[in-house]
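Input record (one chain):
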Amino acid sequence: MATDTGDPLPRFPAGFLWGVSTSAHQIEGAAELRGPSVWDVFTAEPGRVKDGSTAAVACDHYHRYPEDVALLAGLGVNAYRFSVSWPRVASPGGLDFYDRLVDELCAAGVRPVPTLFHWELPAGLDWLERDTAARFADHVTVVADRLGDRVTKWITLNEPAEHTLLGHALGAHAPGRRLLFDALPVAHHQLLAHGLAVRALRAAGARDIGIANSHGPTWPASADPDDVAAAGFYDTLLNRLFAEPVLLGAYPDGLGELMPGDVAADLRVIAEPLDWYGVNYYAPTRVGAPLGTRSEFGGLAIPAELPFSIREIEGRALTDFGWPVVPEGLTELLCGFRDRYGDRLPPIVITENGCSYEGLDDQERIAYLDAHLRALHAALEAGVDVRGYFVWSLLDNFEWAEGYARRFGLVHVDHDTLERTPKASYRWFRDVLRAQG
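The corresponding structure, as predicted from the sequence alone:
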């Protein structure tokens, strides 16, 4: 199968971190060997997942992790971003699995990079409650005490924006609440949990800590002042709300007044210094003034009562998920962050970037990744301090409310037999890494 995209990729700096990402709930399976999560409760409710599936088995990574680590080694990545299931850690013997996984990774020469929360909240806990942040810090301490002798790079949270928006504001993800702006305490408590986790990791001796926040440029639908204002509000809600408490120790545009508790004291915790800042990038969002009717983005319904609407980005190829392919948006985003936050912005790692396409000869994915790596290099040339890049994802997995209908993996997984088959994109990325040295 041809995997030549034309000119060779430009060289990235020596020591650049190359990896792939996964998450526990999406690949591990072995649900009977851990406590229930909010996602188990959610997927048990009819109609919540489009194909009616659950992650009870997923990719069975729990039992097949040696095979998956061998795939990582064959790919040639020097890092693997996975997540640690909080419900599994809270179950008898649950940490033993991560002990075995980390040992296998280290033996294969692949750096383990665990994410300590990737949406898998134990059933019975609630991000609307402040105590959940403290409970999370306890969880982090347990994991760091067990794995910290081998794990040197840590991620606190994955995409608190999506977990707030999709899970608590719009009801599309677990726990399935539709609170709209009453979901803001969920954002605050996750950010507080992040800050407490940084403190817990520092206390355990960790020296290389980041967060994985999702970001993308916001494009006004037109130059009309109403569209510009709506786009500015959206950018505040999805980008600045989650970046600025961490980077600047402040909420934007008076949002702190809407948060619970002693916000000033909490912000001092949230803004604990980081060693690097993780960015998950998929696409920009084109935003306009409310239309008075429901709008959609990638199959997600945006209620008419919100003070913005999502508009189509025209003239762009779409992934199978319906997301526009806009690689230059990554350059724009990173340069914009550098300009906005200056020396308050630590080095950046792209903690997720990828696309959903069918087929083993996935030339569309190759073209997507090639273009985004070139856009990332353009940001480097423009002076942005970028230290690493992780593809989402190693395996075709349980794609949350989409079930098994979306395939983001470099490796195809037959969800009946669980057989793994590397795709053309796997071989292409392997060749890229070899060329990069």
